[in-house]
Amino acid sequence: MEKNCDVIISGAGMAGMTLALALAQNGLKPVLIERQPVTDQLDAGYDGRASAIAYSCFRQWNVLGVGEKLAPLSCRMDEIMVTDGHLPGAATKAPLPFYLHFRAQEISDRSGDEPLGYMVENRHIRTALYEGIMAAGIEVIAPAAIETIEENPSRISVTLNTGDVLSAPLLVGAEGRQSRLREWAGIRNIAWDYGQSAVVVTVKMQHPHNHVAYEYFLTSGPFAILPLTDNRACIVWSESHDKAKALMGVRDELFFAHFQERFGEFLGEIELVGPKFIYPLGLSLAEDMHKGRLALLGDSAHGIHPIAGQGLNLGLKDVAALAEVVIEAARLGEDIGSELVLERYARWRRFDNVTTSLATDGFVHLFSNNNPILRPLRGLGMGVVNQIGVFRRFFMEDAGGATGDLPRLLQGQEL
Q: Which of 158, 174, 199, 373 is an S-S bond match for 11, by CB 3.0 to 4.6 Å?
């Protein structure tokens, strides 16, 4: 028996579940498919990362009813300090005088006194979204994988390895960078490896972080200390693949010795909380965001380096745009999976996704090196931006997702 629904979403990650909630709360019937048991993804050992959530994206969660659950688990980022430096060693040069200092209070009159962003552990995000999915009665088929796909002029049908057959006007790929639906559709994907991996750990600190995030650009890659609740921090330490693997195996005291060589001791004694995690870093960008009755969003459409903390935010912006386009089309009686409707979504998101991906790629190449010509130029650039208020405020508002043609969910408005 074929089950009919309005939207099939392949991938019950953070973007996929957010989309399902937005659609269900506006009268559509989505079904989520996930290759892994969803409950496995809620375990503390599944994903050690925390995400910097733009304040506009957090507004979306408030509208969808999960912001209230996440608020006590979220840490405000009221300031961001960005500096450029050298790797430690006997011949280490003096610290460079250039830096960037962003303060939320500078844009409080336009942001409604919101912070620059919120740091939230991914496991908490997944748990809040999954609880919302269950409360909304949204069907989740997991573990399950799509085996065959059939598309006709009015619908698209998928057969799962569980034997289930689903049919809908629209299929959404939210599976991540290794999207099988993207491959099935023949959508070309531009991808390369940065030769870096990020070692991610959570630590508890002696001295308060005061809601300040730090990003320190070293020749081996960016090094970030991101504030969490309970005076903890998420450390994202980028190194070459080999060095990152070595860091995973060293004793805690050696790990912290290397850590303090790079960032000093101003945060006091540090205690490791939980295991270390490692993630290879690269870029992935699909050439199209839709084909036929398939739409891509999140990492299926674009995966970027975490240097600017925009990866999940791009996916959540995709969700807000796709949900608004699809819901408005459904209310007008249009075919929600048609080329006309999906091109509206792609046109809305294409420029932001491409420019952010290219800008992030440029930052990686600009800062992850010790070029004697580039170093003073990038330092000068940071110094200029830091001294000109209009530049600082633009970058803060852009990082907060509050620039451009915003979907209603990102404005905190219901659809």
A: 174
